[in-house]
Specification:
single chain, 2 strands
Length: 250
C-alpha cells in the first residue's frame, strides 16, 4: 500500500510503516502553519475552510437529513474537513507508531493514514485557492475562480477518490466483528496512553459506517456529486454548486 507515494509495510512492526507515518504527520503539521508571515492569508484560509465545510453540508443536505446517512455526512465534512480538534489529533497521531500500531488492527491504521493523506491534500489545495482567489468576500463565484486559477485537476480527482477509498476501508472494518472489537478493546489503553482524541476520531468514523449498514450508495453518491462540481467549476459554470442534490446519484 502506498501513501503519498511511500510504500507502507503490511507488517505490524514493519520497517517502513513508522517512518512513513512520521513523514505524513510532519507534513500535515507543517501545512497547518501555512502563511506564517501573512496574517491576512491565514485568516482567509480559516474562512475558506469554514465556507467549504458549510458548502459540502449544503450540497449533501438530503443525505444529512436521512437518518441512515446523517452521522457519515457529519463525519466526512466536519471531522475530516477540519472539525473537532485537529491539533490534538495530530499530537496523538505523532506518537501512534510507538503504541497504537501495536493496539489497532492494520485495517484501522490504514484508514487513519488515508485520512491524514486526505487532510494533507485538502490543506494544500485550500492554500492554493487562497493564493489564487480574488480579494473580497468568499462566494461561490470567487471560490470557483480561485479553484480554476489554482488548477491541479489531477489532485482534485485524487481528493474525490480518497473519500471513497477511506469510506471503503471503514466499511470493511465494521463488517468484521473481530476487528471492530479490537478497536473498542483499544479504547481504554488508548486514553491511558494519551491517544484519546485519535481513538475517538476513529471510533466516530466506524460508528458512522456501522449506522449505514452498507455504504455503497452513500459513497457512490458523494463521488458522483463532487465529480460533477469539479467538472462544472473547470467548465466555468456560474454557480457550480447549484444542482439537484435531492436526486441521488447512483
Amino acid at each position: 500500500m502506498k501513501i503519498l507515494g511511500v510504500e507502507i509495510s503490511d507488517e505490524r512492526r514493519g520497517r517502513d510503516g513508522p517512518g512513513a507515518l512520521g513523514r505524513l504527520l510532519e507534513r500535515n503539521a507543517a501545512l497547518r502553519a501555512a502563511f506564517p508571515d501573512d496574517r491576512a492569508a491565514r485568516e482567509r484560509l480559516v474562512k475558506l475552510q469554514h465556507w467549504q465545510s458549510k458548502r459540502l453540508l449544503r450540497s449533501h443536505a438530503d443525505l444529512r437529513a436521512d437518518p441512515r446517512y446523517r452521522i457519515a455526512v457529519e463525519f466526512f465534512f466536519n471531522e475530516l474537513y477540519g472539525g473537532g480538534d485537529p491539533q490534538a489529533r495530530d499530537r496523538d497521531l505523532q506518537r501512534v507508531d510507538r503504541v497504537m500500531e501495536r493496539l489497532l488492527p492494520k485495517e484501522a491504521l490504514h484508514a487513519l493514514m488515508l485520512a491524514i493523506e486526505l487532510e494533507i491534500l485538502s490543506q494544500e489545495l485550500d492554500a492554493d485557492v487562497v493564493r489564487a482567489m480574488p480579494p473580497g468576500r468568499i462566494t461561490a463565484e470567487t471560490y470557483a475562480e480561485g479553484y480554476r486559477r489554482a488548477g491541479r485537476r489531477a489532485d482534485r480527482v485524487k481528493q474525490i477518490e480518497l473519500l471513497g477509498v477511506i469510506g471503503k476501508y471503514l466499511d470493511q472494518v465494521v463488517k468484521k466483528p473481530m476487528i471492530r472489537g479490537l478497536v473498542h478493546f483499544a479504547r481504554r489503553p488508548a486514553h491511558a496512553a494519551g491517544f484519546g482524541a485519535m481513538q475517538e476520531f476513529l471510533e466516530r468514523g466506524l460508528d458512522a459506517f456501522e449506522a449505514m449498514h452498507g455504504a455503497d450508495e452513500f459513497l457512490a453518491t458523494l463521488r458522483a456529486r463532487e465529480w460533477r462540481v469539479m467538472e462544472r467549476i473547470f467548465e466555468g459554470v456560474a454557480n457550480p454548486f447549484e444542482f439537484a442534490s435531492r436526486k441521488r446519484s447512483r
